[in-house]
Write a structure and sequence with these properties.
The protein is of the alpha+beta class. Helices cover 47% and strands 22% of the residues. It contains three helices and three strands. A three-stranded antiparallel sheet has the order 1-3-2, covered by helices on one side. The termini are far apart.
């Protein structure tokens, strides 16, 4: 008998709980969220950004010229040349 009452109480309690959440969910209207891209918000500040590593300084310079951005070639580890772009 106790087991039966416990099961009935569990079923009724679950039904009431689910009914309450369904009513609450229907009453609230979803809000539309508009997200802007990082480029639109300028979240990434302008500065030097790593682009690539080259074994020859002339290769670094030619890729920097081809990028169209302001660039800088600097000596890196292991005899490499590192290309940084400003944007």
């Amino acid at each position: 008998m106790r087991m039966r009452r416990a099961l009935v109480g569990l079923v009724v309690g679950s039904a009431l709980a689910l009914g309450g959440t369904a009513a609450t969910a229907q009453a609230s209207e979803p809000t539309r969220s508009i997200k802007a891209s990082a480029r639109e918000t300028n979240a990434d500040p302008a500065g030097w950004h790593y682009y690539g590593a080259y074994w020859n300084k002339s290769d670094c310079i030619s890729d920097g010229d081809a990028s169209g951005d302001t660039y800088q070639c600097g000596a890196g580890p292991f005899g490499q040349w590192l290309l940084y772009l400003w944007y």
